[in-house]
Amino acid sequence: MSRISSGVLIRTSLLVTVLAGAIGLQSEGKNPFTKRDKAFFADANVINFVRPGLVFKVSSASIAKDGTITARVLVTDPQGLPLDRNGVNTPGAVSMSFIAATIPAGKTQYTSYTFRSVTAQSGGATAIQAAADSGGTFTPNADGDYTYTFKTKAPTTFDPTATHTVAVYGSRTLTAFNLGTNRASATLDFLPGGGAVTVTRDVIRDSSCNKCHEQLLFHGGSRVGIAVCVLCHTPQSVDPNSGNTVDMPKMIHEIHMGAAAPNAIAGKPYKIFGFTGYVDWHDVTFPGSGSINDPRNCQTCHEQNTGAKQATAYMQPNREACGGCHDNVNFATGDNHVNLPQVDDKQCANCHTPQGELPFDVSIEGAHISPTSYSGLPGMVINILKVDNATAGSKPAVTFTLKDSGGNPIAANSLTTSPNRLAVVMAGPTTDYGYTSFGSDVTTNGYVSEDATKSTCSTDGTCVYQFLHAVPDKAAGTFSIGMEGRRGFTINADTKAAVTTEYGAVNKVVNFSVDGSPIVPRRKVVDITKCNACHLSLTVHGENRNQIEMCVLCHNPSETDISQRPAAKDPAVKNAPPQSVNFALMIHRIHDGSALAAIGQPFVIVGFGGNPVDFSDVTFPALDNNGGVGNVQACTMCHVNGSEANLPVGLKDVTTPNSLLTKTPATTAACTACHATKPELSHAVANTTQFGESCTACHASGAAFDVDQVHAQ
Asked: How confident is the model over 214-232, as pLDDT tens digits?
């Protein structure tokens, strides 16, 4: 947000597929692009000639007394050098579309001046939808400097003291240079009568959306950023086919509520007729919570640290926004609203105050508490202090502390009854977990898990656990020990509003040498902070596991779901070949779930209790350059340290009994988790010999088909 000398407030929402900011030429030894961009891998001469990227800036706007709307826009590359919109004097034609809208006095949302009338595909119903202007004219002022005159006119009764906004969005086509399509948008808030803008629509910033979506662009990629979205997704915009509004608060809440929406559960999901026909989101599962598909944490999207001027807008209840999640409420009749009709929004806040007295009351904060993230949970803190007797052939002794968040000691033997739990896991070596045997009595593959509630604890919360199993006699290198634990808790105990939940300790993992060699931690491929950008606070297996370093001890190359299949009720599931749960393979396939299902390869794991879990409804939320979800090419959303291109990804074959290969080489297993067709698997097999995989010959960093290069946009 910035102000210019005239007092006009400029708000720019800009997303470019390459870089926004001053950059130098590649010939100067600088590369301004990231590995997510095709331009990063392009020849320097091409980059210096094309100057990829696109930046719009609306420098001024006005509305004449007769309603004529004009906007002056600068079109440049990221260096600030002008671009020819026709693509004659500079490479790549630039398309531009314009919107004009106002926030009427006393209102909080826009009404668009630019709109269209839409007729339903059947039945003849019509509705108004905000849209871009059509038929306006461009006047060049200087290189890259244009004045656009709207064909649409504002009503002659327009309010010159109300906030008005013009927006430009568009693209620059550079496919002829193998540089894709660059996209951008910009908005300008102004008062036609002059003066400073004080009323804006600024509820959620793009950065909050981009935690999951990576880049926020829709409708073929042409609309970039929330500041543009809210100009068309207004209360005036309706889908005539379904009769549903496409107003931003209602639509976005419905989409993200997805499978948890009451109407979706009842088989009547919210749907709209889009550019490709009817779309509904009945299978969307919201990832922004420790427990998947628990959309109660409003601040996952309504973040309070982005600078959005109306960041607390979610604290102001209204039928449109609240009805997006609580979509089975009939405000006119009172159905599903404790039989109380609500004819307007004036009395909503009488009951739904920002914060009440108890969790799960009808206040905004109280009603949207996820039990596992309730601030009143006592907490559980584990710290591993040391590991003794940890050499080959010996049984390690782990000294640790076990306390609550207040520093009060917790006795290990108080965690013996369900759902309470305390466990310690040993695996190794860190070069690649998976094929170490800790004894003939151990049924888990590559690791051993023991009950740490049998630890000896002192009154200050310091405990010692003596392993029952030894480090294998011939073990070498670095091994790991991890700890996990959870406790049960009842919120609002002894009341009719009581809710039973669980909470877990942050996993702790310590590495140690079993032969005196230097300690070498396992390679770092992903980081939990990356997971939590989208998942908020990722915990799995009943609040037990929440750190990647802990997950990989068990989710190793040799482990499958074979131990759980005998408990499956469906004979077909019970008797099917076991599914690998190796971390790289499993995580890739989970996040590519719907795409794998579409080619007839649904990813199904039999979980605890014999319950099959099918990930066919999972679509990765990252958006591609055309605004489509499922962009699993956005490797850096999860990977750190360039690990996606650090081949090979492991040393040991992955046990894959339900694959065409029962043993799959490590890199092949990771890559064909997404590239899962027979030709792709055949390619990998054809390039693997008795000497191993040859993936690095073509796909290593800097090679002809570098992993990052083939995934770039």
From this structure: 999 999 888 999 999 999 9
Q: Which residues pair with 56 in a beta bridge?
A: 75
**In the block, which residue shows the tokens 């300690």?**
519
| 213 φ, ψ (degrees, to nearest 5) | -90, -10
672, pLDDT greater than 70: yes
What number is the average pLDDT over the span 646-660?
91
Assigned token pair, 665: 């080489």
**What does the DSSP 8-state code read for residue 642?**
T
Dump pLDDT digits (tens) for 573-594: 999 999 999 999 999 999 999 9
Tokens representing 289? 């919570």
What CA–CA distance (Å, rounded) separates 104 from 660?
63
pLDDT at 13 over 70: no
Four-residue CA torsion sign, 325, 329, 330, 332: negative
- DSSP H helical segments within 348-440, as ranges? 348-351, 364-367
Query: What does pTM read for this prediction?
Result: 0.91
The span from the CA of 651 to the CA of 582, in Å, is: 13
Q: Are 228 and 167 in contact (CB under 8 A)?
A: yes
Burial of 487 (0-12, 13-18, 19+ CB in 10 A): buried
List Cβ neighbours of 52 (8 Å cut-off, separation of 6 or more): 18, 33, 39, 42, 77, 174, 177, 179, 182
Percentage helix, strand, coil for the chain under 3-state DSSP, each rounded to 5: 20, 25, 55
Task: Please name the residue that has the structure tokens 């770092």.
Answer: 524
How far is Cα 695 from Cα 693, in angstroms, rounded to an integer?
6
Tell me the pLDDT tens digit for each residue of 606-634.
999 999 999 999 999 999 999 999 999 99
Tens digit of each residue's pLDDT (9 = 90 or more) over 116-145: 999 998 888 999 999 999 999 999 999 999
Tokens encoding 690: 């008795």
Element (H, E) at 588: helix 583-591
The Cα 89–Cα 248 span in angstroms is: 39
For a pLDDT cut of 90, what percent of the chain falls above it? 87
> Is residue 237 a contact partner of residue 273, using CB atoms and an 8 Å limit?
no
What DSSP string describes 73-119? Answer: EEEE-TTS-B--TTSSSSSS-EEEEEEEEEE-TT-SS-EESSEEEEE
Over 60: is that where the pLDDT of 23 sits?
no
